[in-house]
Design a protein that fits this description.
The protein is α+β, with helices and mostly antiparallel strands and about 425 residues long. Helix content is about 30%, strand content about 35%. It is built from 4 helices and 20 strands. The strands form 2 sheets. It has a 6-stranded antiparallel barrel. Strand 15 and strand 16 form a beta hairpin. The protein is elongated and about 145 Å long. One of its GO terms (molecular function) is transmembrane transporter activity. It comes from Sphingobium subterraneum. One of its GO terms (biological process) is response to antibiotic.
Length: about 425
């Protein structure tokens, strides 16, 4: 019995050893297989060459628009003042209304001036009678002096008296004319056609000749002036640019932006530029004239004037989406440059080259590039988010890439 147990124990140990040996061999094989799989080369996926939509740039005439501050001013303005002294009897206009030249605005008491005119007329009649008598006496003495019936001295005195009487007639005629003019001044007319302001005098007020305060003010608002301020430094730059030949003078058209941000519908014209610089502001005044039939523009309004003073003859326009700024603030664009072999594809692709350009101003939806680009070069404006400088690209004209279909794609029908 003990011998059998011992034999069974030895057989069991042999079987267990064989099992462990087989498991070791199996583990070594699995490890080898894993090592071989890990060491085998993995085929890398090639990244597709990104498509780049480009535009071909060219030179063109670009009007350079400037925006300047300005204020409106009346085309004509007149202060209404009395020419004679007296009491205001009536006001014959509506404040704020449109008055015509020659229209009566005020009536001053005319009784004294009417009496003075009648007196002057009477004096003129008396002088004419005295002139007739003196002329008759001189005519009567003339033949008598020839026959020495009267002395030559008496005849000379008669002729002189006739001349004095004629002069007195002219003096009294001038006095009558003055009296009639003063009588007419009691009716205060509108000197110009325009919009009249508020009345500064009332009925019953005393007005005097040469008084400092006007009775009212009239302003002509159609057309209307806009006085635009431009710094003398900008004016010098403009003249230097025109003298260099790179730009030509533009038209004199001017547009306005009002205080509320709206655009004035009518277009104005630049009239002239003052020949002096204001010493307190360092600016030159440019005056433009605008039609104002509806009376929208009133004197003293603040406006913004847009006008083109020069036209650049060789400007290049680049869409704003195709231009960016580097950390130094320099303007940069990506230009299609050269050709490089595209590995894994039969087609060749170009290189996206980073180019620094000069672009100081915008023109609508474009940047105006004045240096750094040449006509005929291709600037990338589409697909910029997938392109880096120096990267191979597949250039396509901008807008030629087909758009993806709209809506959701339908999948396979479920069974």
């Amino acid at each position: 019995m003990p011998i059998l147990a011992l034999g069974n124990s030895m057989a069991w140990r042999d079987a267990a050893g064989s099992l462990r040996h087989g498991m070791k061999r199996t583990g070594v094989g699995v490890a080898v297989i894993c090592a071989v799989a890990a060491c085998s080369p993995k085929k890398e996926r090639e990244k597709p060459v990104p498509e780049a939509g480009y535009i071909t740039v060219s030179t063109r005439d670009v009007p350079l628009t400037v925006e300047l501050a300005g204020r409106t001013a009346a085309y004509e303005m007149s202060d209404v003042r009395p020419q004679v002294s007296g009491i205001v009897r009536s006001r014959l206009f509506t404040e704020g209304s449109l008055v015509r030249q020659g229209q009566t605005l005020y009536q001053i008491d005319s009784s004294l001036y009417r009496a003075a005119a009648r007196q002057a007329q009477a004096n003129l009649a008396s002088a004419r009678a005295a002139q007739a008598a003196a002329a008759a006496l001189a005519e009567r003495y003339r033949p008598l002096a020839q026959i020495e019936a009267v002395s030559k001295q008496e005849y000379a005195n008669a002729v002189a008296s006739a001349g004095q009487a004629a002069a007195a007639v002219e003096q009294n005629r001038a006095a009558l004319e003055t009296a009639n003019i003063n009588l007419g001044f009691t009716r205060v007319p509108a000197p110009i056609t325009g919009r009249i302001g508020r009345s500064l005098v009332t009925t019953g007020a005393l007005v005097t000749t040469g008084q400092a305060d006007p009775m009212t003010t009239i302003q002509r608002l159609d057309p209307i002036f806009v006085d635009i301020q431009q710094s003398s430094a900008e004016l010098l730059t403009l003249r230097r640019s025109l003298a260099s030949g790179g730009a030509i003078p533009s038209s004199t058209a001017v547009r306005l932006t009002l205080e509320d941000g709206s655009t004035y519908p009518a277009e104005g014209r630049l009239e002239f530029s003052e020949a002096m610089v204001a010493p307190d502001t360092g600016t030159v005044t440019l005056r433009a004239r605008f039609p104002n039939p509806q009376g929208v523009l009133l004197p003293g309004m603040y406006v913004r004037a847009q006008m083109s003073q020069q036209t650049l003859t060789n400007g290049i326009l680049v869409p704003q989406a195709g231009l960016s700024r580097n950390p130094r603030g320099e303007a940069t664009v990506l230009v299609v440059s050269g050709a490089a072999g595209n590995k894994g594809a039969a087609q060749t692709s170009a290189i996206a080259q980073l180019r620094t350009v000069k672009a100081d101003r915008t023109y609508g939806a474009y940047w105006l590039v004045t240096s750094g680009l040449k006509p005929g070069e291709k600037v990338i404006v589409e697909g910029l988010s997938r392109i880096k400088p120096g990267q191979p690209i597949r250039p396509l004209p901008a807008g030629s890439k087909p758009k993806p279909p709209q809506g959701k794609a339908s999948g396979p029908a479920s069974r």
